[in-house]
Write a structure and sequence with these properties.
Elements (H helix, E strand, L loop, with lengths): L12 H11 L3 H17 L5 H22 L4 H20 L2
Length: 96
């Protein structure tokens, strides 16, 4: 059963995004972050993988922090991009 609540009270883009994210059980922002990460990796695939991985994970971390600030994601989802960023930094410096 879907909640088909009227979004009349959603006056701003933040309110609409919050409501749509709530109706989708938090999947909207998570999938948006994943799609942007994969898009960044595909667009810059001709470059070296290591800097592209750091850049994509950095942008995903910034987006996760912003989404966490708005209350769109929980701490569990916030930790994943941060771990990915640290892992990509370690790969950049220590894997030849």
């Amino acid at each position: 059963m879907y909640n088909l609540t009227n979004l009349t009270n959603a006056n701003t883009i933040v309110d609409m995004t919050t409501e749509v994210n709530r109706l989708s059980d938090g999947l909207l922002i998570v999938m948006l972050m994943l799609i942007l990460f994969l898009t960044y990796m595909i667009v810059f695939k001709k470059q070296n993988l290591k800097p592209v991985l750091i850049g994509a994970s950095f942008l995903m971390t910034i987006m996760a922090i912003i989404a966490f600030t708005f209350g769109w994601i929980g701490v569990e989802v916030l930790i994943i991009p941060i771990i990915l960023l640290f892992a990509s930094i370690l790969i950049f410096y220590f894997v030849t």
